[in-house]
Amino acid sequence: MTSPEYAFASLLRQLERHSVLSAEDRQSLLALPYRLRRLDLGSYLVREGDEPTHCSVLISGYAFRQKLTGAGARQILAVCLPGDAVDLQNIFLDVSDHSVQLLTRCDVADVPREALQELALTRPAIGTAIIAFTLVEASILREWVVNVGRRDARARVAHILCEFAVRLEARELATGEGFELPMTQEQLADATGLTPVHVNRVLMGLARDGLIERHRRSVAIPDWEALRRVAGFSELYLHLDQVAAAA
Amino acid sequence: MTSPEYAFASLLRQLERHSVLSAEDRQSLLALPYRLRRLDLGSYLVREGDEPTHCSVLISGYAFRQKLTGAGARQILAVCLPGDAVDLQNIFLDVSDHSVQLLTRCDVADVPREALQELALTRPAIGTAIIAFTLVEASILREWVVNVGRRDARARVAHILCEFAVRLEARELATGEGFELPMTQEQLADATGLTPVHVNRVLMGLARDGLIERHRRSVAIPDWEALRRVAGFSELYLHLDQVAAAA
DNA sequence: CGTACGTTTGATCTTTCTCAATAATGGTGG
DNA sequence: CCACCATTATTGAGAAAGATCAAACGTACG
Predict the structure, then answer these.
(1) Strand, coil or helix: what is B85?
(2) What's the pTM value of the predicted model, to 2 decimals?
(3) Hey, which residues does A101 pair with through a beta bridge?
(4) Footprint of strand D, using CB within 7 A?
(5) Do the Cβ atoms of B73 and A150 come within 8 Å?
(6) What residues pair up with A8 in beta bridges, in sequence order?
(7) Parts of chain A with a pLDDT under 70
(8) pLDDT at B213 over 60
(9) Residue A121: its chain B contacts at CB < 8 A?
């Protein structure tokens, strides 16, 4: 389950969502050179200001993108799931504009920048897939702006829970029953633009109203429609249904 | 100044920021087929849910990306400047996840989806440039999340003003003296996640403290360093300095 | 088994929102 | 060119969502 081959396969599955890859395309992706690392919770995969030399693929574990304001506040920008290529971003820009930190202990595969770049440019189908992949990330980011900018605390927290549930299910990391939330309430606060105290109160409120059930970090959603309504959630922006046209 | 050739030249200049284009690359970009349209303020260039058939390039005028929450609130996600290719986004995804609306009367050039897509895939340098371009947009979006999520009202408004000033200057649409802000205070509010009333109060406050000078929609920044400090602004995320390595 | 971290709760305070009214401004038709 | 109308900007008073401060409680891990 956590072998590198499996992780590349997961990356592959995501790329194929938006582009038709030939057997050769697939092969050359799986043949990409890489170096394996195991990193502890809290390690940085990328730091703002870095000049990237490689792109890391998350084999197992979770990570998040973050930036700090001048005043020292932290904003979490995105959560990376197992199988995500963490910094496709950095392969085509020369300096990293945000940091990526691990949410859990992780296995990562580092792919040299040039190898991936060359693949993207010489194989049009892979190029398309990579562009589409970054565009989906951008779409998620746009919804994140909406969440933080124009929803109240309850809807914000509900929305981020809906997003996790759907993204995790799409990768078969969650069942309809529920999922492990890989974040502390403080991290949830930095993702939603709230304070940890208020996140706690909102979570308690959602639980009290029967919209979620919690035991430790595990979250279950007994009435999906109800939570979706509270969150104003519509999964269109995840671009999950877009299957590449048959070859 | 507002001929289509000029606008494509402006697009070209942006693309060349991140990739080295050959004479041929340039030529094929400028030879792209297009259809010209003049549209009134408030028109939609793209609507959420649309299946895109073309990519519009802004020849003159301003536009903005937006999404609506279920509750009907609007969040502005980005402002598009003259010379921007508005929906490179949509060329590689099959359904548009947000809307683009005009901030002013605009001249736009519609480039057929297939033409641009083919160019991106057959000319690696152009492919690189397009990926880099969308990555820079994503970086701006990330800073937008930080702005709305983790800065107080004063810093938020100051930050968006700093961003405009720098982006406009980079395209020679503003001088050190100041610039025309193409938005109403209500739109500014939807961009910063505040209410129009509060945006007004913050603007008044910034002016009272000598951080900005306003007459109608024109904004001057008498003390750049002071405003930058209030905003916590650092232009790294705009990736402006990144010049393509010499060929 | 104790220590550090995360969660929960209460009390109070502040920022920002809401509602409402007034004043400018710009555009339009006569 | 002027008067009118619609939109945008400005101001005040009161309300509310969420922040801050502080303390207690759990739980996991070394």
Answers:
(1) strand
(2) 0.94
(3) A44, A64
(4) A 152-154, 193-195, 197-198, 216; B 184-186, 196-197, 200-201, 203-204, 214, 217
(5) yes
(6) none
(7) 1-7, 242-247
(8) yes
(9) 124, 127-128
